[in-house]
Design brief:
The protein is α/β, with parallel strands linked by helices. It folds into 2 domains: 16-159 and 307-353, Ribonuclease Z/Hydroxyacylglutathione hydrolase-like (Metallo-beta-lactamase, Chain A, 4-Layer Sandwich); 165-302, Rossmann fold (3-Layer(aba) Sandwich), CATH 3.40.50. 29% of the residues lie in helices and 20% in strands. The chain contains 10 helices and 16 strands. The chain has helices at 48-51, 66-76, 139-142, 165-182, 198-208, 216-225, 228-233, 253-262, 309-319, 333-353, and strands spanning 25-27, 40-42, 62-64, 83-85, 92-94, 97-103, 111-116, 122-125, 148-151, 186-192, 212-213, 243-247, 269-276, 291-293, 296-302, 323-326. Strand 7 and strand 8 (122-125) form a beta hairpin. The two termini are 35 Å apart. Bound molecules: zinc ion. Zinc ion binds at residues 2, 45, 47, 106, 128.
């Protein structure tokens, strides 16, 4: 879920959870009243609910990753002189604040922002992220304690546990091999949004050595990723590819039956994957059952680009921030209560233990 609770058409003031305390920076805040106190607008990634409000006439300063920067220039028409593209792990000093971009493991180009203020205070804004043990080995994150984390709380509820991405990708490969053994004239279809879920079809074309076709809306995004594996397998003619990427809304039996009829010279069945973060709340992938009609097999797979509850817990208990500011607020009040309760519980474990080192 990419909601932030702001849906009014009249412009509101930038909310507190999008402003970094002690700086003049705002994160993913283009759909708000202009604020003279903000000097830099940071964009964490190219998902619509994060860049909403940004258009070709924007004249402020945007700081973002090179992939996201190229996308807002090419697809939205933002002038290049307003975009500062900063590579991951290349610290930049702005207004006396050191800013470091760190891979958020969310979608291509997605980053977390680490801020080191002149007084030494360290603040991390995760943007949308999938917490990973790799982050615990990142020198920028670990060299000193992080005082304050602005946290992606999309799945901050104990019900939301799902397999690790690697487990899901392995399941996709295993299933595909199983189907291919029975039906060699199999078309493999992956549902995707404009940006995101790329790892599913990337691992398929790499492991199976198959060509990949994507719709034009996705092509520009993939090219801006500069990914050698994808570039090696990508073809422009769909007749040359056995793996097709389609919009997520097209992953249904009615559409796919028609799609199969359209390419029946080459294919006799379709195996489709519909990745979703909350398809399945089980830890085990064995609970996944396909929806089958005629020769179209659709698997909803638990593939999330946000952190699961247990990943969030591990992340917070590892970094032990004194302050945590949630950045995603669900409309369901029970969810919100559980989110706040969880955060309070996690903090109490390390604050009681006295693990948190004092900030500067
Ligand atoms: Zn996102």
């Amino acid at each position: 879920m990419e909601t932030d609770g702001e849906s009014s058409s009249s412009l509101k003031q930038i909310p507190y959870y999008k402003k970094i305390v002690g700086t003049r920076f705002a994160i993913d805040a283009f759909n708000y009243e202009e604020s003279p106190e903000i000097t830099y607008y940071l964009l964490s990634h190219f998902h619509y609910d994060h860049y909403i409000g940004l258009n070709a006439n924007f004249t402020g300063n945007i700081l973002t990753s090179p992939i996201t920067g190229r996308l807002i220039v090419d697809r939205i028409g933002v002038k290049t002189n307003h975009v500062i593209m900063v590579d991951i792990h290349q610290p930049i000093v702005i207004d006396g604040v050191t800013v470091v971009l760190i891979d958020a493991f969310h979608c291509p180009g997605s980053v977390m922002f680490l801020f080191i203020l002149p007084d030494g205070k360290r603040i991390l804004h995760t943007g949308d992220f999938r917490a990973s043990p790799e982050m615990e080995k990142n020198n920028f994150l670990t060299e000193k304690p992080i005082d304050h984390i602005y946290l992606d709380t999309t799945y901050c509820h104990p019900d939301y546990n799902f397999p690790k991405q690697g487990e899901t990708l392995q399941m996709v490969i295993d299933l595909t091999l199983e189907y291919l053994a029975k039906e060699p004239k199999l078309l493999i279809v992956c549902g995707a949004y404009t940006i995101g879920k790329e790892k599913v079809f990337k691992c398929l074309c790499e492991t199976l050595c198959m060509n990949l076709w994507v719709p034009s809306s996705k092509l520009q995004v993939l090219l801006s990723m500069n990914d050698p594996v994808i570039q090696q397998h990508l073809v422009l003619d769909k007749d040359d590819a056995q793996i097709h990427v389609l919009p997520m809304t097209d992953i249904n039996h009615e559409f796919l039956r028609g799609y199969l009829r359209g390419c029946r010279d080459r294919f006799t069945s379709i195996l489709a994957f519909k990745p979703s973060g909350w398809q399945n709340n089980e830890d085990s992938s064995s609970a996944i059952v396909p929806a089958i009609q005629d020769n179209v097999y659709i698997y909803g797979i638990p593939y999330s680009e946000h952190s699961s509850y247990s990943e969030l817990e591990r992340f917070i208990k590892f970094f032990k921030p004194r302050m945590i500011t949630p950045t995603v607020f669900h409309s369901d009040s029970k969810f919100r209560v559980m989110m706040l309760r969880s955060i309070a519980q996690w903090k109490s474990t390390y604050l009681q233990n006295g693990d948190q080192q004092s900030s500067a």
